[in-house]
Amino acid sequence: MQVHAPQFILASASPRRRELLTQIGLHFVVQTADVDETPLLGETPAALVERLAILKAETVWNTRRDVLNTPVLPVLGSDTLGILNGELLVKPRDVEHARQMLRQMSGQQHEILTAVALATTAGVQLAVSRSVVKFRTITDPEILAYWETGEPHDKAGAYAIQGLGAVFVENLQGSYSGVMGLPLFETAQLLAAAGIHTL
Ligand SMILES: Cc1cn([C@H]2C[C@H](O)[C@@H](COP(=O)(O)OP(=O)(O)OP(=O)(O)O)O2)c(=O)[nH]c1=O
């Protein structure tokens, strides 16, 4: 088996982000950043998603610098959230919260924002992907059955486009990988600007 040297550090616990980066042939190590994801008072969703992506990247960047006191590999951080009628769609706290979000999303369009931040010795570079997702009508029994599968528990907006949740998605305008948690077009551009190429 060939062992590849890591090209960067992924500051994320999300298996989806690992999967997407592996899909485009990148080699990386994971160091998770446990950050407080609570919105600040009056903070817009766009400002929140950018702040959290930067915070995740910078948190890991700073720990690496403290521990090693040497320049380190670039650090990639990311955050995903949804917006419906100006309200945030985050990870559900419980079945009631998921039910409340999915009822509102039923038959409607919502937006998914994913921000990607790359920390390097040159500072932090940021890219944001914005997608519009249209859901078909979803019934209450479907919402409960979906909750029982476990899939929505750790997903922004309480669904996964890459999973069973795909059956709710009538159409999508934007980035499929962005909705899934890491927009590959924007991520590849950020990495390329830091000298990390996929092709
Ligand atoms: C909308 C949607 C979200 N998601 C996921 C992507 C993210 O993992 C998650 C949103 O939570 P995030 O806080 O962005 O990420 P995370 O907590 O999973 O990982 P970390 O903070 O360590 O980076 O929702 C899907 O997997 N599919 C989808 O269709």
From TrEMBL:
Concerning Pfam families, the annotation shows: Maf (PF02545)
Is Cytoplasm there in the keyword field?
Answer: yes
Write down the position(s) of the site called Important for substrate specificity. Answer: 16, 80, 162
UniProt-listed InterPro entries: ITPase-like_fam, Maf-like
Its cofactor is: a divalent metal cation
Catalytic center residues: 79 (proton acceptor)
Q: Keywords in alphabetical order, please.
A: Cytoplasm, Hydrolase, Nucleotide metabolism
Q: What is its EC number?
A: 3.6.1.9
Function text: Nucleoside triphosphate pyrophosphatase that hydrolyzes dTTP and UTP. May have a dual role in cell division arrest and in preventing the incorporation of modified nucleotides into cellular nucleic acids.
- Its protein name is dTTP/UTP pyrophosphatase
Q: Which organism is it from?
A: Thiothrix litoralis
Which gene is the coding source of this polypeptide chain? maf
